[in-house]
Amino acid sequence: MLIICSECGKEYSDQAKNCPHCGAITSQNRYISNNNNYQNKIYANNDINQNTSSSGCGAVLAIILLLGLFFIGYKLFFGALGELGIEKDDIKSSIEDAWNHDSKKSETKSSYEYTKTYNIGDKIITDEFEITVTNVEERANVGTTVFNESAGEGNTFVCVRIKIKNISSEPIGTFSQPTFNLIDSKNVTYSSDISASSYYATEVNTTANALSDLNPGVTVTDAYVFELGKSLYLQNTFNLKIDADKTILVKIK
User: Fold this and answer.
1) Which of 215, 230, 231, 244 would you call most buried, defined as having the most Cβ atoms within 10 angstroms of its Cβ?
2) How far apart, in whole angstroms, are the C-alpha atoms of residue 217 and residue 171?
3) In whole angstroms, what is the distance from residue 166 CA to residue 244 CA?
4) d(Cα 251, Cα 120) in Å, to the nearest integer?
5) Residue 133 and residue 123: Cα distance in Å, rounded?
6) 196-211, pLDDT tens digit by residue?
7) CA 91 to chain centre
């Protein structure tokens, strides 16, 4: 079969690899070569599209999984609170109260100065609270027979018991109620041990309730445990720093 050379326009057999007249590659061979390049481009584009599609599907599945886990966690969390009789609106209200209350507290404590240091047993009166540190004791362990905790080697527990009364005319949310920390002679602040405080509170049978408002006229008892090095506690003086609508210091050692 004869074909026409695309370069010189002369006829020659389609079995020849090159035009015998000008040496140009035959149209058939040129077609095959171009077609192979074209097919290679198609395959390459298909691979890219497949990889992109797979990555996109993976990202979508990951987002769906995270949203599902978040939703399940959300339902479980608020379901558990519901079992305890705590509603979402109660938490929202407490957070809003804390925000507003903290803004008011920052105005009264801006100078961070203490004009008076109280003693154990003193009745401390602020605009909103009547607070009394009723007892301070040093212990090696706290809790009941079943639930208890011991101080680490070389450490000691400083256990503080407190009575708090709301003397204002409005309920005070849990996040707006007083907080308690130890502060030493160098103004270093020490936070309470959460688990030890819980065990001690169970042991001495406190009446304060987590996530509950303190209603006007109501008095509750609470307890806090601070784990300190024995030598540190013996060699320093310590005050209990109470952050309420005023900042108060109570000398405990």
Assistant:
1) 244
2) 9
3) 11
4) 7
5) 8
6) 999 999 999 999 987 7
7) 16
Which residue intervals of 84-191 are DSSP H helices?
Answer: 88-108
Secondary structure string (H, E, C) spanning 45-95: HHHHHHHHHHHHHHHHHHHHHHHHHHHHHHHHHHHHHHHCCCCHHHHHHHH
Long-range contacts of 57-62, Cβ-Cβ distance < 8 Å, separation of 24 or more: none
Give tens-digit pLDDT for 35-46. Answer: 444 445 545 555
Task: Determine whether 177 is exposed, middle or buried from the number of CB atoms within 10 Å of its CB (0-12, 13-18, 19+).
Answer: buried
Boundaries of every domain in the chain? 2-61, 107-251
Q: What is the pLDDT of residue 15?
A: 77
Dig out the tokens for 165 from the structure.
Answer: 């009364």
Q: In the chain, how long is the greatest CA-to-CA distance?
A: 120
Alpha-helical regions (H) of 115-237? 194-204, 230-235
**228 φ/ψ sector (left φ>0, alpha ψ -120 to 50, else beta):** beta
Give the model confidence (pLDDT) of 74-118 as tens digits. Answer: 555 555 555 555 555 555 555 555 555 554 444 444 334 456 889
CATH topology classification for 107-251: Immunoglobulin-like (2.60.40)
Using only C-alpha atoms, the chain has a radius of gyration, in whole angstroms, of 39
